[in-house]
């Protein structure tokens, strides 16, 4: 995954194939560019949303490649993002 403000990302996926439910935990470190370009809380919320969308896409891609039916998967996944400043 590449994003201009993200230094590194670690994604953990816990998935129960029989129940088609699970959780995704995203740990990321971001660079705020110093005082003049500091990231506001609105920017952080947008960054968290972008991370969730990118990682959900990646998980869906892997699961469909494995032949898992993902029709109702979005409602059964808990996605959590933890951002730390670099």
Can you give keywords for this protein?
86 residues; 1 helix; 3 strands; alpha+beta
Cα end-to-end separation? 17 Å
Q: Biggest sheet, open or closed, and with what strands and sense? A: 3 strands, mixed
- Percent of residues in beta strands? 25-35%
Arithmetic mean of pLDDT: 78
Tally of contiguous helical segments: 1
What value does the Rg take, in angstroms? 15 Å
Work out the helicity level: 25-40%
Uncertain residue ranges: none
Query: What is the general shape?
Result: elongated
How many individual β-strands? 3
Assembly annotation: single chain
Order of helices and strands: EEHE
Strand order of the largest sheet: 1-2-3
Class from helix and strand fractions: alpha+beta
Question: SSE layout and pairings?
Answer:
Layout: E1 6-16, E2 21-30, H1 41-65, E3 77-85
Descriptive account of the structure:
With 86 residues, the protein is of the alpha+beta class. It is built from 1 helix and 3 strands. Strands 1-2-3 form a 3-stranded mixed sheet, with helices on one face. Strand 2 (21-30), helix 1 (41-65) and strand 3 (77-85) form a beta-alpha-beta unit. The protein starts with 5 loop residues before the first strand and ends with a strand. The mean pLDDT is 78.
């Amino acid at each position: 995954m590449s994003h201009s403000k993200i230094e590194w990302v670690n994604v953990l996926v816990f998935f129960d194939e029989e129940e088609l439910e699970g959780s995704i935990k995203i740990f990321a470190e971001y660079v705020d560019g110093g005082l003049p370009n500091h990231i506001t809380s609105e920017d952080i919320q947008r960054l968290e949303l972008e991370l969730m969308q990118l990682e959900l896409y990646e998980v869906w891609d892997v699961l469909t490649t494995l032949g898992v039916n993902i029709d109702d998967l979005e409602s059964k996944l808990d996605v959590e993002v933890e951002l730390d400043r670099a």
